[in-house]
Design goal:
InterPro entries: AGP16/20/22/41
Keywords: Membrane, Signal, Transmembrane, Transmembrane helix
Shape: rod-shaped
Pfam families: AGP
Order of helices and strands: HH
Number of strands: 0
Structural class: mainly alpha
Length: about 60
C-alpha cells in the first residue's frame, strides 16, 4: 500500500511540475497601453457640415420646385 501511495505522489508531483512549466512558457510580457484615440477630428466635423448643407440644399430645392 505504501508503494502505491509513493507512486501516486510521484505522478502527482510530475503532473504539477509539467503544468507549472507549461504555464510559465505561455506567459507574456504586458504590452504598453495604447494611446487614446482623439475624441473628434476635423474630418468628422467637415463631413457633418457637408451633410447638413446637402440636406439644406435638398429642402430648398424641394420648396422652390
Amino acid at each position: 500500500m505504501a508503494r502505491v501511495m509513493r507512486v501516486l505522489l510521484l505522478e502527482l508531483l510530475l503532473v504539477v511540475a509539467v503544468a507549472l512549466l507549461l504555464n510559465a512558457s505561455s506567459a507574456q510580457s504586458p504590452e504598453p497601453a495604447m494611446a487614446p484615440s482623439p475624441t473628434s477630428d476635423g474630418v468628422t466635423i467637415d463631413q457633418g457640415i457637408a451633410y447638413l448643407l446637402m440636406l439644406a440644399a435638398l429642402v430648398v430645392t424641394y420648396i422652390i420646385h
